[in-house]
């Protein structure tokens, strides 16, 4: 219990005791003291007691913040759809804060040899999960089914970005930028060669398809 709540509780108890105490006798106190203990005084003390108890009850059970919702957590075996997407219990979730090449995307390595970077990303994520249970915190504030997913407490998106299999999502504020810079500095994964930004590649393909 907080200090404020304790003080209020003591205050309420004192008021209750004063109200319930018997009137003092004429022999113990002068006439003017007896007059001060009339019905008006008791009504005043009772009026003070009610808001004190109400405030104490409010401290004991604070209301939930407006618009605040408890995060939804799902867990279980996960199937990798691609380097950025999991199927968890029949629901497809994209890993929040990162982006990975699509399965059909091709990149070039450090020796200018083409390879399927999309399939490499999916294979890396599959190997990292390794058949273990995955726990995901759903994030749907933006209307998309994204989630922060962990395996044994390890952030899967952070691991993918740090090892160059994915990049930080530029639309997610400050998400995994440090891991992105580390992977670029080490020239690992996508950063070892040449690749298209996955989101830009999708945008270009949609524009071409609409012509």
UniProtKB/TrEMBL annotation:
Signal peptide residues on this chain, from the entry's feature table: 1-25
Keyword vocabulary terms for this entry: Signal
Database matches in InterPro entries: SNase_OB-fold_sf, Staphylococal_nuclease_OB-fold
Name assigned to this protein: TNase-like domain-containing protein
Keyword Signal annotated: yes
Superkingdom to which the source organism belongs: Bacteria
Limits of the TNase-like domain: 71-193
